[in-house]
From TrEMBL:
This is Branched-chain amino acid ABC transporter permease. The chain crosses the membrane at residues 32-51, 71-92, 104-124, 202-224, 230-250, 285-307, 314-332, 344-364, 371-389, 434-452, 486-506, 526-553, 560-578. It holds the Pfam family BPD_transp_2. It comes from the Bacteria. Keywords: Cell membrane, Membrane, Transmembrane, Transmembrane helix.
Length: 608
């Protein structure tokens, strides 16, 4: 069963009925209902939704949205703009280059889901609907009306497959469910966006600045959510809002513009990231920021091994541990058996070199294996490293790592007289300890991005891609598969060790239990691999965004207690089901999962 998303007259396109929506409303009335409901929803956020301030966010104030009301207001404004653009207003056509109706359905769905979640949360926390003010009832009704109007807009319905008259009741039910699912997908299906018109270079650069500013704002708001209900509302609004912008075609246009100015986009992204500590009033969220950068840098190193070379490494976190232990042992810790206090640049070289050596030693005898066998060997290496670090305690083995107690009291870095453990005043802003390490990790992340980008576009990078796509064919073309894979393994290990040297100083202590295969707290091998796959294998921004999400979301879902990993696992399964190529896939991998997608006119050497 297929859904028609191609233009009429396309060869192979199935006949479809385009005479109505999911709900029986005339098109003009449905469009007006969607617009009016969105406007009224936005206005309702300026009313009180409950009478007591016991619910987080203080939704009792008239004329000033707070807490979850802000999220509903943002979603309602987006839905209003898309609804106005659906009328073909000349000044808003740029907002929906791929069509307005699918984006309008998703935008109104985002507003409805956030509004009703808030109303139900108020009722559950405070003890019933009686705790709602008129504004709470109004936002529930208007958001429902807007969604009903959007779902009543006409769309191209897929033609059902013929049913077998001999089917049993269960087979008929499966047939009906399959058609219902195809119809649901058709409701949100969008056409290909119009090409981006030629713009002056300064205009495109301004667009890039706006996109980066929007990304920084969303990230800052998400990481700074103060209570559980607000974070869940943020996830709902941000997720469905991003989907709406994607269906509208804005994400595609933004991607095309940034692709024309890759160097400017990359530099701008690091500038935007460097501004993050200045948006915070204390060092609390800079802590999350530096851990996210450590996690993201290691994930980007793993992306060389998995995303470019196609080698499944299940023990990659061990290289992070090797770098951290090597740096901790020579950084002047009183727990270290070596009486050495190297400067930072020397400790970085020691950590990166130690990880590189271990990468070569582990890779040399094992990289002749393929597939599952290589994965099992790397998984064993990860566990061997952790067990060995536990046993080097002076009892079961030589006294090197201090066993399960680890290397503790690692001093803060001091580079050219700049103490990373002290607060510093910069332009009227107070930069704390974790903000100092955030800037340091940002520099290291930039180095890793540069290495990834240059290696991916080099001759060795093209050899990695050839090995990933078909190792037998690559060998037949004269590529030395073993040498190429060993280089990928060594480079990935070296980059992980580089991040490990900073992690040792940030955490003060390095213990074996920090480097598990799987656990509720990243980084571990399972989370690192998930970050690469979730973000998009073979890309630069994919693992960075995937790592940020995989670190931030579990940190914010701690209120779920024992159900935290369950909820997180369900979310990953759903994402891999509906977007297996990752959040930001390279074009080659996207075509592998979506054969009906339009073929690109140009692919980079790494397919990114």
């Amino acid at each position: 069963m297929t859904t028609q998303t191609t233009a009429p007259g396309t060869p192979g396109a199935r006949k479809a009925d385009a005479t109505g929506g999911l709900l029986p409303l005339p098109e003009k009335a449905a469009r007006a209902l969607a617009l009016g409901g969105s406007v009224l929803t936005a206005l309702s956020t300026f009313l009180a939704w409950t009478w007591t301030a016991d619910f987080p966010g203080d939704l009792t104030v008239y004329g000033y949205p707070g807490g979850l009301q802000v999220l509903v207001l943002v979603g309602a404004l987006l839905a209003t703009l898309v609804a106005l653009a659906s009328y073909g207003l000349k000044g808003l056509r740029w907002l929906v280059p791929a069509g307005a109706d699918p984006a309008l359905r998703l935008a109104t769905l985002a507003v409805f889901a956030t509004s009703w979640y808030t109303v139900l949360a108020i009722s559950a926390d405070l003890g019933g609907l009686v705790n709602l003010e008129p504004g709470g009832f109004l936002v529930a009704l208007t958001s429902l009306a807007a969604l009903a109007g959007a779902l009543s807009l006409p769309f191209r319905r897929p033609e059902p497959d013929p049913a077998d008259p001999d089917d049993t009741g269960w087979a008929k039910t499966r047939h009906d469910l399959a058609h219902a699912w195809a119809t649901t997908k058709a409701v949100f299906a969008a056409d290909s966006p119009r090409p981006v018109p030629a713009l002056p270079p300064y205009a495109e650069i301004l667009i890039i600045v706006g996109v980066l500013a929007l990304g920084l704002t969303v990230f800052t708001y998400g990481i700074g959510t103060e209570y559980d209900e607000q974070f869940i509302g943020f996830l709902i609004t941000a997720g469905l809002g991003f989907a709406a912008l994607n269906k509208a075609g804005l994400i595609s246009h933004a991607s095309q513009i940034t692709a024309r100015h890759q160097n400017i986009t990359t530099c701008g992204a690091f500038v935007a990231a460097a501004l993050f500590p200045f948006t915070q009033t204390d060092d609390q969220y800079a802590t999350l920021g530096v851990y996210i950068l450590i996690f993201a840098t290691v994930a980007l190193g793993l992306n060389i091994v998995v995303g470019l070379a196609g080698l499944l490494d299940l023990g990659y976190v061990a290289f992070l541990g090797v770098g951290a232990y090597a740096a901790a042992l020579v950084s002047g810790s009183p727990s270290s058996p070596f009486d050495a206090h190297f400067p930072f640049w020397a400790a970085v070289l020691v950590g990166a070199a130690a990880s590189l050596v271990f990468g070569v030693l582990i890779g040399a005898p094992t990289l002749r294996l393929r597939g599952d066998y290589l994965a099992i060997v790397t998984l064993g290496f990860g566990e061997i490293f952790r067990i060995t670090a536990n046993n080097l305690d002076g009892t079961s083995g030589p006294d090197i790592t201090n066993g399960s107690n680890g290397v503790s009291s690692i001093p803060n870095l001091d580079v050219l007289g700049f103490d990373f453990g002290a607060q510093h005043d910069l332009g009227g802003y107070t930069i704390g300890r974790f903000a100092n390490y955030f800037f340091l990790m940002l520099i290291i992340t930039a180095v890793v991005v540069l290495v990834f980008r240059r290696s991916g576009n080099s001759r060795i990078g093209r050899a990695w891609v050839a090995i990933r796509e078909d190792e037998t064919a690559a060998l037949a073309m004269g590529i030395n598969g073993f040498r190429v894979k060993l280089i990928a393994f060594a480079v990935g290990a070296c980059l992980a060790g580089l991040a490990g040297t900073v992690q040792a100083h940030v955490t003060y202590t390095v213990t074996p239990e920090q480097y598990l295969f799987a656990g509720p707290i990243p980084p571990n091998s399972a989370f690192l691999l998930a970050a690469v796959v979730l973000g998009g294998m073979g890309t630069i921004s994919g693992p960075l965004i995937g790592a940020a999400l995989l670190f931030l979301i579990p940190n914010k879902l701690q209120f779920l207690g024992n159900y935290q990993l369950f909820a997180f696992g369900v979310a990953l399964i759903l994402l891999m089901r509906f977007r297996p190529e990752g959040l930001i896939p390279n074009r080659r991998r996207q075509l592998e999962f979506h054969e009906d997608a339009e073929a690109p006119t140009l692919l980079t050497k790494a397919g990114a």
